[in-house]
Fold this sequence. Notes:
Helix content: under 10%
Order of helices and strands: EEEEEEEEEHEE
Structural class: mainly beta
Shape: globular
Number of strands: 11
Largest sheet: 7 strands, mixed
Distance between the termini: 40 Å
Amino acid sequence: QVQLVESGGGLVQAGGSLRLSCAASGRTFGSYTMGWFRQAAGKEREFVAAASWSTGSTNAADSVKGRFTISRDNAGNTVYLQMNSLEPEDTAVYYCAASAQYLTMVVRRTADYWGKGTLVTVSS
């Protein structure tokens, strides 16, 4: 059974940093694209960042470029999202996601597997 389990969310002041982690299990994810989405209260889910370690391709939403960095451990089963210079607008539930196809996540903005999410709250 595939599981994606996020951790690292919490409350932080504007300008601060958080690092989210996502542990994947249930299959080998080395060839998968892994990434992050978020959903703020009352808004639709939006793509944040994705990375394919098999191709070296990465992509991030314009709203987080220069502030958020996606990375992954060598085994490929843990993905991180380093979030710096956080803004109140970054407040959302952050979901880890995995997809067999890079374009599924980056272009279609969806995924094959989802975590249950971790809440990030940025106070002003």
